[in-house]
Inverse folding.
């Protein structure tokens, strides 16, 4: 049986996991330098453990995780795909890993070159005139985009505008970012086909609107067919168009956001460009903008000089400020750079083609047993509904949990909000037909179980390191830190 | 292609199963006008070619003997840290929304939260923020939301980088911004008392501050709480091993940069912010939170909790837009603190202190150089330079030494000030090299102070 103890329960006074070089002076002598009332009263009560026990503790813990090197994650909008190992070796090169962010730029030329070249590669992929890799997460990219909209509106005397149009199918971060910026959300509905209707945008557009944020392909996995007309409506009304780039894996080399009317977008480098998810980060959320908006990008910017060197340009009076103490998640820029350079233009297109083919294939395999609200061809992901199963007393949450028994992660569920009992499925291009067939077969089995033996689904999972957690008790009797020894 | 398992034959079968004759049939929703009519112009590289190019690019940067700090520090990273976080089980796992198959990630977050609480003396810590700067900005937003006040006093002894990020994070909010100039490198408590009033949401104090000086936190706490504002402390986790805890000092929110605890410098990222509070602010706290609880069979386990604060549930009513955080970096911090433990962390702090004391002795020994402030410090101090600090840095680089950070970049009146830091990774011989370099630079004879 697994040892469930937290690390503090494995500690004992006098155990030691780490030896430092020797001090020349005594601890007392050194501490006496500090004013008495500034000194720590008791040593920080961190655990005292030997290195073998530390390793075993964390390695045993790690084996309870599902992860992409082990199995499938059909997680819509999250693009959980294989992360090439070369990326990590590249990122940890001492010539990158040992650089202090404030060392003079002439001593960090390799790092500046990566930033400069990656920004250029992202411009090519997206069609935008400039990108900034400073934002460290998609949510920061969104914030950057809205800050740029605000700066642009202010400069043209439209500082009173404070509303952002967002379709109801949007990711939760979009409205949350609007609030973070101090703006308010105007939510619009999708039509029966799951698309934004230009007339809906026209009706929502007025001179209080800063701009519109939308995901394309949208969270149903559908290309917004009317996007060019929608962009024109927003532009004519004095707003800007922001694209949430969470779904970029669908369309590299197929369409480019800048070519179809968007003024800006964020990239989730950690999704599309294979940065390991790390159990929830760190990510990286570059932003691309039109040439006209470049001056607002966060400072500093890396520029190239004619003699082949690079420098930081801090003299950016229109910049929206800075999102990060330094330049962003630099090691991740190396990873994204390594990935894009590995694939090249043709390879990126193959990625998207295979992601789209995998999604359409899997959708076709599931449609017999699950409701499909939007039957048209999808891009890299699609949304099915567990409505049929719900009538039998089996909810989407139950289906998700039952999948865990088969070594498959749950899909993104109950999202987008416009589909009841939604399961949003994104297979990605790095999954084989064999894996998709296995998933489809498991989903079919669960559909049969819902009809014949629903208890096995509603009580799932059965075969996981723990079963369903008691979330209500967890929230009521909050234990969020181990503080008593 | 190396990362795509399906063959042409697979694709043919799959397209047929999807009712499509060709890939193009799947793109019917995309108008022709919207499609790209050419290949992206990027040449592919094999793994071998890529690694050769990486080697070549990385070699364009210079490895320096570094005494730079200013928020991130060159500490030693024990091998076990990367052995743990390099495991694909941690590295390639998704956010732990499905707790049943993410116990490892959830437990490591819970232990991270526990370590941060114990280090800071606070009651609750979240699962991490992007970096110390954004954590500080989120602390400001939390203070403003919980006090419903719109005024902020920002002392210039707080990291200028943090201040810039705070300003950006305030977005379109109408905020009354008061800059409070430092006096001799610290907050003047009397002037602070004159600035704060019943409209002030928060006072931020960095301890030690950007100059490495110790602020009079007890007095600042009194002034802050007297007007009902929140006290935000930004702390260096290494110095925290020897300094009084924010919990004891009465801080409401504590933030800091976790990089010194097991992360490489990596040109400034990824870093990891920590964020700790008193319990009463928990429902307004940004970010994820892991809890220890039980499953339906009564078996102990871990799960994310209080998610109704977060963007994926609350959307425009969320306490922050943060979604992805720095989980793997937080894992590195957790392993690091577990390994070095109570005595190890203190030793790292004391060694850093000892080295900084040696730097101070070397500076006092040099003609023309002096300590900018004659005051106690932990592991970072300001040196007054006889020539512009920018020149000292430039000459140092030529000698393979990064002697510190030129403060003139951030404080126009301090062009003769160099911010110098030490970690346990610097040896006495390294300090000697710094001393010799500075001595040579001012043209003095090279006499080792060790002989004197």
């Amino acid at each position: 049986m697994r040892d469930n103890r937290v690390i503090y329960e494995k500690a004992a006074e006098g155990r030691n996991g780490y030896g430092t070089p020797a001090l020349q002076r005594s601890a007392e002598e050194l501490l006496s330098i500090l004013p008495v009332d500034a000194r720590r009263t008791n040593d920080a009560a961190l655990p005292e453990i030997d290195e073998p026990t530390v390793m075993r503790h964390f390695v045993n813990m790690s084996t309870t995780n599902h992860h992409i090197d082990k199995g499938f994650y059909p997680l819509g909008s999250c693009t959980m795909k294989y992360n090439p190992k070369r990326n990590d070796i590249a990122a940890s090169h001492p010539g990158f890993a040992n650089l202090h962010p404030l060392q003079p730029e002439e001593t960090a030329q390799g790092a500046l070159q990566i930033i400069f070249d990656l920004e250029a590669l992202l411009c090519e992929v997206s069609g935008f005139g400039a990108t900034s890799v400073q934002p460290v997460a998609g949510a920061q990219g969104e914030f950057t985009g809205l800050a740029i909209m605000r700066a642009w509106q202010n400069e043209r005397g439209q500082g009173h505008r404070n509303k952002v149009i967002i379709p109801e199918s949007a990711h939760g971060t979009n409205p949350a970012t609007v609030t973070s910026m101090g703006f308010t959300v105007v939510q619009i509905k999708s039509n029966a086909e799951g698309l934004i209707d230009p007339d809906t945008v026209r009706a929502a557009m007025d001179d209080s609107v800063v701009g519109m944020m939308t995901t394309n392909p949208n969270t149903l996995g559908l290309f917004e067919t009317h996007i060019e007309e929608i962009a024109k409506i927003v532009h004519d009304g004095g707003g800007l168009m922001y694209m949430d780039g969470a779904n970029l894996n669908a369309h590299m080399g197929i369409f480019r956001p800048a070519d179809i009317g968007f003024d800006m977008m964020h990239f989730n480098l950690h999704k599309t460009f294979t940065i390991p998810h790390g159990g929830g980060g760190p990510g990286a959320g570059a932003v691309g903008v039109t040439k006209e908006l470049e001056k607002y990008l966060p400072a500093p910017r890396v520029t190239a000089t004619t003699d082949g060197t690079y420098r930081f340009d801090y003299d950016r009076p229109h910049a929206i400020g800075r999102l990060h103490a330094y330049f962003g998640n630099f090691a991740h820029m190396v990873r994204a750079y390594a990935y894009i350079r590995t694939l090249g233009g043709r390879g990126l297109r193959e990625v998207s083609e295979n992601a789209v083919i995998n999604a359409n294939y899997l959708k076709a395999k599931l449609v017999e047993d699950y409701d499909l609200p939007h039957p048209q061809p999808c891009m890299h992901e699609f949304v099915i509904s567990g409505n049929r199963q719900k009538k039998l007393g089996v909810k989407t949450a139950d289906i998700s949990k039952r999948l865990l028994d088969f070594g498959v992660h749950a899909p993104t569920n109950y999202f987008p909000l416009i589909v009841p009992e939604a399961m949003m499925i994104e297979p990605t291009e790095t999954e084989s037909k064999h894996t998709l067939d296995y998933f489809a077969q498991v989903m079919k089995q669960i559909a049969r179980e819902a009809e014949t033996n629903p208890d096995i689904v509603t009580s799932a999972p059965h075969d996981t390191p723990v079963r369903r957690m008691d979330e209500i008790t967890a929230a009521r009797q909050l234990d969020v830190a181990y503080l008593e020894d | 292609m190396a990362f795509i398992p399906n063959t042409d034959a697979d694709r043919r079968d799959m397209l047929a199963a999807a009712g499509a004759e060709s890939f193009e049939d799947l793109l019917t929703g995309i108008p022709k006008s919207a499609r790209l009519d050419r290949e992206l112009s990027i040449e592919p590289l094999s793994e071998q070619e890529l690694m050769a190019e990486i080697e070549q690019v990385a070699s364009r940067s210079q490895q320096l003997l570094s005494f730079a700090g200013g928020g991130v520090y060159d500490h030693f990273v024990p091998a076990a840290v990367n052995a743990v976080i390099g495991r694909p089980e941690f590295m390639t796992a998704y956010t732990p929304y499905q707790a049943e198959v993410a116990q490892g990630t959830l437990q490591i977050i819970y232990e991270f939260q526990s370590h941060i609480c114990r280090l800071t003396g606070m009651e609750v810590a979240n699962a991490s923020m992007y970096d110390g700067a954004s954590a500080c900005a989120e602390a400001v937003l939390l203070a403003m939301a919980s006090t419903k006040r719109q005024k902020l006093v920002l002392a210039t002894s707080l990291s200028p980088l943090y201040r810039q990020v705070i300003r950006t994070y305030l977005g379109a909010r109408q905020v009354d911004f008061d800059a409070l100039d430092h006096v001799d490198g610290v907050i003047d408590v009397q002037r602070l008392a004159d600035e704060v009033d019943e409209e002030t949401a928060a006072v931020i104090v960095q301890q030690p501050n950007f100059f490495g000086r110790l602020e009079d936190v007890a007095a600042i706490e009194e002034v802050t709480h007297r007007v009902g504002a929140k006290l935000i402390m930004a702390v260096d986790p290494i110095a925290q091993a020897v300094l009084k805890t924010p919990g004891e000092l009465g801080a409401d929110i504590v933030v800091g940069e976790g990089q010194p605890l097991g992360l490489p410098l990596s040109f400034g990222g990824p870093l990891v912010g920590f964020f700790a509070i008193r319990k009463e602010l928990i429902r307004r706290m940004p970010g994820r939170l892991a809890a220890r609880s039980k499953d339906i069979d009564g078996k102990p386990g871990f799960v994310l909790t209080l998610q109704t604060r977060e963007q994926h549930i609350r959307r425009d009513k969320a306490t922050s837009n943060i979604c992805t955080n720095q989980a793997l970096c937080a894992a590195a911090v957790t392993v690091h603190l577990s390994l070095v433990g109570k005595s190890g962390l203190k030793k790292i702090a004391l060694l850093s202190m000892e080295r900084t004391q040696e730097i101070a002795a070397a500076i006092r020994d040099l003609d023309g150089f002096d300590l900018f402030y004659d005051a106690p410090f932990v592991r970072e101090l300001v040196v007054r330079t006889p020539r512009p600090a920018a020149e000292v840095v430039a000459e140092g680089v030529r000698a393979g030494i990064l002697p510190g950070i030129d403060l003139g970049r951030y404080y126009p009146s301090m062009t003769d000030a160099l911010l110098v830091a030490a970690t346990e990774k610097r040896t006495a011989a390294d300090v000697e090299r710094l001393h010799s370099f500075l001595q040579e630079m001012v043209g003095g004879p090279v006499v080792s102070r060790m002989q004197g």
